[in-house]
């Protein structure tokens, strides 16, 4: 049973309205957001129209503001935006959807200038406008604006979608627009692209034209990109994969990220053969960050085509090349009972012999096999690159409890690198690693061919005793 002093609605109601009112005045004193919330509630208590006026007044103030939104102000500002957004939906929308719809479009129109005022953390601000786009759905359904008004308003918003803040707009409005409305919106966007006369931004042209013309051409190009993005979303809403593909210039379809987008939609349209052709034509570089996404897409396409053996072979090839544990897990799940044991043993042998020690180490840690990771480090300790602290530090942490010798070898590699190379900025970390080695030493039953902790420290002092910056941290 909850205490009578617990903060909940029932206990607060017992205080009575007069006392609660006094407390609210005290709590809101010095809190501008709380005061605005209370004023909005009071306006809403009078009528939805009064609430709408209060919101409209506040939206005008926000629109006129020019000061930067620093990280210190960001949370309070986001709270303020949410108060206005929810006020539109809850206090106005429930009884006057037409007015609420007008207010929500005004609210959405504030997005670009607000985001541009943010000095950091604009993703959180953008999320507020994503929510506002979703709010439009029920408001449009209730207000029932004319198709022409809805199409024109949506078009204007989409053309201002500079930061992706309106990416949910088309999917939200799809039920209200219907097939005809979506088609008309698409035609409007296509007409805009056809009539857009963006300036050629070659170096010669840039040098010849004045700054105003150049900035105008930049704005035109930006709007073109925004319109193309909107057409992609429209194609998805209409389920038109050919219209989706048409938005990509032929040369861009060989980019891995574009090929993936196109292939996934072709699979959804039961055109997996074309999807495989698109993926195989992509220019995938061994060092591309999106190569794993491309590989995942290719496996999905092969599965959709019923070419399961090829999908399995590709999973194994992906694992062998990069030792990514996810591919091995997926490969083993597809094998018959008991076959997976033999395949796992083969995978372990491949990892143990991989020329990239850190890749093998990361695999065993991801595979949750600390025994194998320790064996790898002990057998190939001379290959440990003490400069790769981003891999070695978490490895030492993971192995310290169950395999103190292997963890010690990793820590020593980082210490040796920092001290021998004179990396003074790492001395503090190296000293901490040495202290950890001292803590691990009593738990190591047999150092084997490796130096004991005392011998290692003595050698370190003999070879690097003049590195005073390091030894000062050790004390």
TrEMBL record:
InterPro entries given in the database record: DUF6880
Top-level taxon of origin: Bacteria
Protein name: Uncharacterized protein
